[in-house]
Amino acid sequence: MAAQTREKAKREERMEEILFTSSADGPIVAYDASSGTTLAHFTGSRCPRKGLSLVSQIQTLTPTENNLSLIAVSHISSSDSASPSIHLYNWWSSTPFHLLFIPEPVAPLLCTPDGSFLFSGGVSGHIHIHAISTLSLIRSFPAHHKPVSCLAFNGDGSLLVSGDDDGAIATFPILRLLDASSAQCDFSLHCFAAHSAAVTSIASVDISTVISCSLDYSCKLWSLTQGTLLHTVRFPCMVWAVAVDQVRAAFYAAGSNGRIYVGPLKSSTHGFELSTCGPEHGHGRVAVTAVTMANEGRDLISAFEDGSIRVWEIDTGRAIRFIGPLEMAGSISDLVVVSSKRIRVKDGCGFVSDSYSRGGQSNRRFCDEEIISRGVGVREMMEMEEMLSVVVTDRKRAIDTLETSLGMYQRLLKLILKEAKGRDSGSTDEPWPCRHGKEEEDGNSL
């Protein structure tokens, strides 16, 4: 009984978060991170690795609010003649509402912490910057000699860090990139050969340190102030993604052999010893494609090549939730976790659940301010949504009845007007029968 009480308390403590997944073969899917419930699908995009981001298009927000209103997705078209684009989705439609056209195909996306500017990495090695408020491209600049493979910010968001398919890493001051008056082409603070194969992911450790991983079987810690290598950690396999645990001063690496490796951010007397998260056998031979922290650092979410997702409780090292794979989804190319309180659309409504199921074309929405003020959870929101749908149906039925009544009154009014017009036009010819009868009575009386 006590164990059940503790489990219930843990569930109640969980952050209300939404998990977004992308795929090159299937839709963007939104889940309730605490239950695994599917909330929405966003279709029409073929998303490459690191090609998913959340952005803001709200002008009145203060920088501390950091509310998000749109989903941005890199789209790799199957047609060579199609123009390269980034798809933008709002919360109540499952299809893109706007396309950001770009000079070349791009893969990784990264949005500034306030959600105002979107960075994208191109196949030519250029990085492109869009202002979300105007949906316009404000700068494109050469960053690498090979395709850009990943983008990240340092701890305070003042530096952009990028990696490419050739193993190089470069850093750029954000203020210099966003300075419209700057006409220079070389914005880099540092650029160095970091790995012997493609850089697959970069994560911030603090303001001056990042960790990178690569297909060269290694993770490396870097000093951004000096552009120098701090430590190298070797793996028995390629590493597809890395996530940083600030609470435990550790990092989690996604192995191509199906295992998630745990390592310290600082060397101990035993060096950088690695352990595995979860069972020793991992997830068979299916590669781990993405990892991300959730629930204020209590959980780790991992995605696999077969489209499945696992949620791990870090303190116990056990998988507490399994999600998917969905029938329509392929290998997961990216994971993004965001607090539901940060999600807001322009008219003050926030996304909660979905009416997509089996062919629907719209996602439902809720008043975000009311939900946040009451502290309502996602499951409660869904119950409220069901009640709302009943109200909407009743209102629609009442409107249909009113429209039918108005139609009847309109037809009746037309008949009355037609009859009155007929009377006026016939007054100079043959009298109306009732009038004729009256005249006869008057004549007889004379």
Description:
The chain has 446 residues and is an alpha+beta fold. It has two domains: 14-376, Methylamine Dehydrogenase, Chain H, CATH 2.130.10; 387-436. It has five helices and 30 strands. The strands form eight sheets. Strands 3-2-1-28 form a four-stranded antiparallel β-sheet, with no helix packed on it. A four-stranded antiparallel β-sheet has the order 4-5-6-7, with no helix packed on it. The protein starts with a helix and ends with a helix. Mean pLDDT is 80; it is low at 59-65, 345-362, 364-377 and 428-446. Residues 421-446 are annotated as: Disordered. Keywords: Repeat, WD repeat.
Determine the N-to-C terminus distance.
Answer: 110 Å
Q: Are there runs of 5+ residues with pLDDT below 50, and where?
A: 59-65, 345-362, 364-377, 428-446
In CATH, the architecture of the largest domain is 7 Propeller
**Biggest pleated-sheet summary:** 4 strands, antiparallel
Query: What is the tally of helical segments?
Result: 5
Mean pLDDT: 80
CATH superfamily of the largest domain: YVTN repeat-like/Quinoprotein amine dehydrogenase
CATH top level class name of the largest domain = Mainly Beta
Question: Any idea what the shape is?
Answer: elongated
Rg to the nearest angstrom? Answer: 31 Å
Order of strands, main sheet, comes to 3-2-1-28
Classification by helices and strands: alpha+beta
Report the count of strand segments: 30
Proportion in helices: 10-25%
Organism: Protea cynaroides
WD repeats: 141-172, 288-322
Keywords: Repeat, WD repeat
Protein name: Protein ROOT INITIATION DEFECTIVE 3-like
